[in-house]
Amino acid sequence: MPDVHSLVNEFVIKLQKRQIEGSKTTAKLTAELLRSFISQLRLPHSNQAGALIDAVKEVGEKLITAKPVELAVGNVVRRVLHIIREEDLSITNAAVGGLNLASESDDDDGNDEYDHPVLSASAVAAAARSALRPPSLQTLLDDMPHSAANPHTSSSGGDSEGKSKSADSLRRKLKHDVIEAVNELIQEISTCHEQIAEQAVEHIHHNEVILTLGSSQTVKEFLLAAKEKNRSFRVFVAEGAPRYQGHAFAKELASSGLQTTVITDSAVFAMISHVNMVIVGAHAVMANGGVIAPVGLNMVALAAKRHAVPFVVLAGVHKLCPLYPHNPEVLLNELKSPSELLDFGEFSDCLDFGSGSGSPLIHVVNPAFDYVPPDLVSLFITDTGGHNPSYIYRLIADFYSPDDLVVRRKSAS
Amino acid sequence: MVRHQCACKILQPTNTSPDTIAGGGCFDAEETGRKTIGGCMKDSGEDRCSGKGRCGNCGGKTAGTFGPCVLSQLSQSGVEMKGWTESKFLLSCNKNPLCWVTELHHPGEGGKTAGGNSANTTKSAKPAPQKKDNSSVAASERKGGDRQTDKDRKKDVPHPRMQFDDENRVEKAKKRSVVKQAEARNRVELFRHLPQYEHGARLTDLESKFFQLGPVHPAVYKVGFRYLTGDISGGNARCIAMLQAFQESIKDYSTPPEKTLIRDLTSKINCYVSFLIECRPLSISMGNAIRFLKRRITSLPLNLSESEAITSLVSDIDRFINEKIILADNVIVKHAVTKIRDGDVLLTYASSSAVEMLLLHAHELGKRFRVVIVDSRPKLEGKMLLRRLVGKGISCTYTHINAVSYVMHEVTRVFLGASSVLANGTVYSRVGTACVAMVAHQFRVPVLICCEAYKFHERVQLDSICCNELGDAEMVSRVTGREDINSLDGWTSSENLQPLNLLYDATPSDYVSMIITDYGMIPPTSVPVIVREYGREYLLI
């Protein structure tokens, strides 16, 4: 549909031009885009799930390549794919269950009675297979649509009208279920802060000193929730050069009544011996438990480890990425403009690598992200509760399917 | 006999009887039995107790140190001490070893006091607050090297610095101060013990006082002013500027009548030092230089004429600057340059004069290497280093301290400067040095500290909080060059918000691979050895 495609292209352009910032916003917009995409999709009669998955993969690949560093986009695409597979599976299971029920009722045709056990057995076997070995959904997809179609066709009692009616209802059911689930996903993304903030009271006690760097919406709500419950604590905010978001963050915290001290990033090691806990947000959490975080947090994590201060990372589940990082400092990093560090004016001849004028060259490094390895992180707090870094890989299986790790359109297969 | 209680409560009788007199006096061997009232200032008519006494005999100020039980000493020296019981200890005068102040109970008369002899001043079992003002630190440090060895040992224990969370001391210091200090608002609780004043007010106040500062020599005033504005910064630069200012003032010095050169000059130097402290707290290198100067002054032979003494002091200062700073830097560079190989990537943090000399020298020798300069707010000293290195033709990489984990993987050596190295091997240096050393240690990159030996100190420190310097908080809230970042404007109105501008931090010794000094390349554990072996050298120059 041209409408949807133009929406997709618009979104891609916005991503490329970095007009959308922040993983939560990006995730929400991606989910909404995919929802409108799916609702406008016309599905064939058979192998609906497969078709749906292919179509979403195609769009997803476009979105991911628009901004590879923004892992939230890929996360949401993979979540939607997983949702599709799951909904398909549950519909099949429901159909199987429906078959069993139907076989017991007296209103059925004799034909059905005769046919059902055979088909239901195969359907049941297929469903059982899928339940026992979730990874082999591949095989399931090849078998299931047929077996899914058969029981329905048989349950219609051999009536062709009934057949088409139920096929329609099945088709609509899948799309309907998927869209419902995507709505739930969007809801989950929007409310992740509240879920995380609810756990604040367990972790923050009286007279604690908390250190944070830069600015994070999740951390802010976390701290304010603890404040609501009348826990009195102090916060040290490191300013987070070169964006200096720590300044605005500290102002907000102070205006809500928390004792806040703004320190420079260089003073982190000096102050951390007097800190009880380090609480930070993340840009993305990788499958090994490593964190892609705003620049400077690796230094903070090392200092915290040295002084045995717990390093707590708050992350919504939409930030959880099923990929394992390889050389993340380079591959999952963005280098930003040197103008944030240096004025171009005074060093203009040195910064121009193409001039060849013989003046010495200045290379300005301004990365946006840092990689914190999992052994430096004490705890992850997500909307599903608190987890150890070593548990993250297991969470992946709840939210993602292993077939979706590489989001690439199946080429003519 | 007037009977009243000492208001300072140091000489409070333990049984809190109101009849005890706080008193004391001089006990000359010839004047056996003579007692003059001294001790607490209250006796002498001042309405404020300083905690120190004034010797009733010679009028000298007592230092507030306590002495041992005097009863036995008195009876040994033949004084009639029947019936006296000793309940407290002594305050003793610095000047005259025979002067002391004590409090003894006489059970019969309900509290007369007697004088006693005190040859030694060792600390009592109950440690009294030893917090001294900076001027008296100088005075007591100048007790002279001609006392017994145990006194020498005790003297080597560094005196605690003035603690600013003690209200009394702060009040007294304020009354004595030349520069009006306005305490900064929104002070951080953790740093109550450090002075934090509002920067801008001090500047204008000092400017207006230029023609009124009688006791302060104009050269010293100029230097103090430059410290306040941040014009001179860096351990070596500040030390050299201060010594040269002292040189000027010594050249212009003439002894006033009825005063001895040594004492008067020392008190003048003390006065200058307190002025400089009010402008900006002393760095450890400056403290060592002042100690050297005072020792030279006190060890001047008494038979020298004034002009000879002055020329001797002036040349001493020149020698100190030359040997301990300039030549020391040359030696350090010569040693350190052997650690740079072709193809190295060297990382340095902020701006250190020794490291800069090293890099320029290595470049002149023709070694091929790259430099990574790590910089941080609020001083952004790395930018100036970058300018100077680029001006000399060295290719550099420039980054901010948050990105140090990103660049560290390609670095082969880290060279850092230091403001001081303490006796437990801790490196006391610009804030952020500890972060850089920690990340370098994580990446297994050797960290080399270039520090002249005169900056070593026998103090020890474990963390960066107990002793530090607080800079202007305004510099944290305002980001120069980025006017769009103005969220912290008006932070003074919010009582929950405090910007903190730490200037120094303490790097633990296990992050440091080697310290390069003018005595050679040593591990951090050898620093107290150098202090012990070569610290006496000051006296022999």
UniProtKB/TrEMBL annotation, chain A:
GO molecular function: guanyl-nucleotide exchange factor activity; translation initiation factor activity
SUPFAM superfamilies associated with the record: NagB/RpiA/CoA transferase-like
Superkingdom of origin organism: Eukaryota
Biased composition (Basic and acidic residues): 160-170
Gene3D superfamilies registered for this protein in UniProt: Translation initiation factor eif-2b, domain 2
GO-annotated cellular components: cytosol; eukaryotic translation initiation factor 2B complex
Listed InterPro entries: eIF2B_beta_subunit, IF-2B-related, IF_2B-like_C, NagB/RpiA_transferase-like
Compartments, record wording: Cytoplasm, Cytosol
Record keywords: Cytoplasm, Initiation factor, Protein biosynthesis
Disordered: region residues: 138-170
Similarity remark: Belongs to the eIF-2B alpha/beta/delta subunits family.
Subunit structure and binding partners: Component of the translation initiation factor 2B (eIF2B) complex which is a heterodecamer of two sets of five different subunits: alpha, beta, gamma, delta and epsilon. Subunits alpha, beta and delta comprise a regulatory subcomplex and subunits epsilon and gamma comprise a catalytic subcomplex. Within the complex, the hexameric regulatory complex resides at the center, with the two heterodimeric catalytic subcomplexes bound on opposite sides.
The protein's name: Translation initiation factor eIF2B subunit beta
Organism: Salvia splendens
Upper classification of the organism: Eukaryota, Viridiplantae, Streptophyta, Embryophyta, Tracheophyta
TrEMBL record, chain B:
UniProt keyword list: Cytoplasm, Initiation factor, Protein biosynthesis
A GO CC term assigned to this protein in UniProt: cytosol
Record-given protein name: Translation initiation factor eIF2B subunit delta
Subunit structure and binding partners: Component of the translation initiation factor 2B (eIF2B) complex which is a heterodecamer of two sets of five different subunits: alpha, beta, gamma, delta and epsilon. Subunits alpha, beta and delta comprise a regulatory subcomplex and subunits epsilon and gamma comprise a catalytic subcomplex. Within the complex, the hexameric regulatory complex resides at the center, with the two heterodimeric catalytic subcomplexes bound on opposite sides.
Example GO molecular function: translation initiation factor activity
Localization of this protein: Cytoplasm, Cytosol
Lineage: Eukaryota, Viridiplantae, Streptophyta, Embryophyta, Tracheophyta
Ranges of biased composition (kind: Polar residues): 115-124
Similarity field: Belongs to the eIF-2B alpha/beta/delta subunits family.
Stretches with biased composition (Basic and acidic residues): 130-171
Keyword Transmembrane helix in annotation: no
Membrane spanning stretches: none
Top-rank lineage group of the source organism: Eukaryota
Region annotated Disordered, chain positions: 110-178
Main location, first listed in the record: cytoplasm
